[in-house]
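> example.struct
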């Protein structure tokens, strides 16, 4: 069983191993960037030109300073003005190119982030149901939102800064060498010291940023869990307890943020200190060279400006190192999700199930009429604990089969196996005599329509919600007929916009029972040959339940139906009742047969209807 993302272990947090992981993450980000390679080539060209133009400024500034003392009789104002105008033009064009570069990078990062979110969502739609059983919804949403936004910040700003820094550093170094190679020897000491310090501190602090992303995901998961259960929390007056628990988790997340930011910000000031030392050394040795006649005052000025440009990007790179580490940790979480196991690939289309019409077009398609069998099925969500033991069910087309038993007997697990949300550990589940493990999953699931105890509605019109999932276009008349059969047509017509009323936030503007009736209407409009009702009438009153049962009798006439119910009054008319206890079918038969046998079903029935 898939147990979700693996938590980083202490043995993972070592310099060598982390570097490999970081390289792998960067390569995968690079593959996303490669899809927009032409845009990045344009960005690279703009970055190079913008920074080269900005590098002309200090050289022109030095020429202007030297022009002040060229003639014994005074200043060469024409040369000074000329150099100043050229310097202003170079800086102006450089600024325009830098602005264009930012626009290009923002658009590129938007495209990459959009692609990543689409890939994540598509991945989630392909993953095993078990992944969602063991991972918090809030943590998954955190990866789609916060982690992707963190990556976006790096792609849109930090990469531009890094690209600009490389050009600036290389260009400044070339200009400084052309001015005075001897002064450049100062950087032979300070630059390696800056690089060594940055690398060492980055390796030490990287686990803190990984922990920060993880703790935020856990906090989001807890918040989503509490918010979705607000009614239960308030019903038991547990608000202070939940607030206290949230405060504890929030403190852990805040501490993780503090540690990452606190130690991460040490990098910038440390490297800045080293760069200021290099500037002081350049000023001292440059002055000595000027006094000895080895360099002009203008060249000293230009060299100082280039040294600031040279050391500035190194300092800036150190300042954004924490952002890069945060982005690397976020990308690692995103890619870990993308690497999760999907449902195994479907088998070839020759094993597809379909309708009579599809069978007529392709004889290889097995027409589904509603025969469902399980043969010696054993299953457990974990190897240590088996839920279903030697399950044998045989349901003919058109039959109504009820599955009853105490809580935890395995009723819903059987539905998971029939729908192939999970595959049995041993034994076979058959549809029309065909082992569904050898069939296409989508065709198996299209053969069923479900009404669950937990309703699900999406933001949209009532008509769209009722028509959801139908394999064919549905007319308004069919939608209204289904609503009438479910006993909710009069309520819908009483709304201001009728069937065009917009449901919001999973239908919070209607009652729980009305939500259930809408999902029942949705199931009624489907032409799937097998119907599953998992406590489908648990949220409606007795009168509504009677109306639904009457409607079901007509609409389920040609369907195989599986009914899971705790209220045994809803299953008396079933063709066969399977009684589960501890994952085993201990009795089966009609209501009258089981009552006459006076077994476990008889005791369940008597417990519910005793006076």
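> example.seq
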């Amino acid at each position: 069983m898939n147990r979700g993302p693996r938590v980083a272990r202490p043995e993972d947090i070592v310099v060598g191993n982390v570097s490999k992981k970081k390289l792998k993450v960067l390569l995968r980000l690079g593959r996303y960037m490669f899809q927009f390679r032409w845009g990045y080539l344009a960005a690279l060209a703009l970055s190079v030109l913008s920074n080269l133009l900005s590098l002309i400024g200090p050289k022109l500034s030095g020429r202007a300073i030297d022009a002040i003392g060229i003639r014994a009789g005074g200043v060469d104002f024409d040369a000074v003005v000329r150099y100043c105008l050229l310097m202003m033009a170079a800086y102006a064009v450089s600024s325009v190119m830098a602005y264009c570069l930012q626009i290009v990078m923002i658009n590129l990062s938007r495209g990459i982030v959009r692609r990543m979110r689409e890939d994540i969502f598509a991945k989630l739609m392909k993953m095993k149901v078990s992944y969602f059983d063991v991972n918090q919804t809030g943590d998954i949403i955190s990866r789609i939102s916060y982690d992707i936004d963190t990556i976006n910040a790096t792609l849109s700003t930090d990469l531009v800064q890094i690209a600009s820094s490389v050009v600036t550093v290389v260009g400044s170094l070339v200009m400084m060498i052309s001015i005075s190679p001897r002064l450049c020897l100062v950087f032979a000491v300070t630059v390696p010291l800056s690089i060594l310090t940055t690398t060492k501190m980055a390796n030490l602090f990287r686990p803190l940023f990984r922990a920060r992303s993880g703790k935020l995901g856990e906090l989001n998961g807890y918040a989503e869990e509490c918010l979705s259960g607000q009614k239960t929390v308030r019903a038991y007056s547990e608000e202070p307890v939940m607030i206290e628990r949230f405060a504890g988790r929030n403190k852990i997340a805040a501490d993780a943020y503090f540690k990452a930011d606190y130690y991460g910000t040490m990098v910038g000031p440390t490297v800045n200190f080293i760069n200021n030392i290099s500037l002081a050394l350049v000023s001292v040795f440059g002055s000595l060279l000027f006094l000895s006649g080895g360099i002009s005052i203008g060249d000293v000025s230009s060299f100082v400006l280039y040294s600031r440009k040279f050391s500035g990007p190194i300092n800036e790179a150190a300042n954004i190192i924490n952002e890069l580490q945060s982005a690397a940790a976020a990308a690692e979480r995103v890619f870990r999700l993308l690497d999760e196991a999907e449902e195994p690939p479907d088998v070839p289309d020759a094993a597809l199930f379909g309708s009579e019409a599809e069978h007529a077009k392709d004889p290889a398609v097995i027409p589904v009429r509603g025969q469902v069998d399980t043969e010696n099925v054993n299953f457990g969500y974990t190897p240590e604990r088996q839920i279903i033991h030697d399950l044998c069910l045989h349901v003919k087309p058109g039959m109504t089969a009820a599955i009853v038993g105490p809580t935890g007997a395995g009723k819903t697990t059987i539905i998971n196996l029939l729908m192939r949300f999970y595959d049995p550990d041993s034994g076979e589940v058959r549809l029309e005599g065909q082992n569904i493990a050898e069939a296409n999953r989508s065709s198996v699931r299209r053969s069923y329509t479900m009404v669950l105890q937990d309703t699900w509605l999406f933001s949209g019109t009532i008509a769209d919600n009722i028509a959801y999932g139908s394999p064919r276009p549905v007319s308004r008349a069919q939608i209204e007929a289904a609503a009438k059969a479910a006993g909710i047509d009069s309520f819908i017509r009483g709304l201001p916009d009728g069937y065009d009323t917009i449901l919001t936030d999973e239908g919070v503007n209607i009652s729980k029972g009305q939500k259930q009736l809408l999902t029942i209407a949705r199931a009624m409009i489907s032409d799937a040959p097998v119907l599953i009702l998992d406590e489908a009438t648990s949220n409606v009153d007795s009168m509504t339940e009677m109306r639904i049962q009457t409607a079901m009798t007509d609409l389920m006439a040609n369907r195989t139906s599986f009914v899971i119910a705790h209220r045994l009054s809803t299953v008396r008319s079933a063709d066969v009742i399977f009684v589960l206890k501890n994952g085993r079918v201990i009795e089966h038969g009609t209501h009258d047969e089981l009552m006459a046998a006076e077994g476990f079903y008889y005791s369940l029935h008597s417990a519910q209807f005793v006076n």
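> remarks
The first strand starts at residue 353 and ends at 354.
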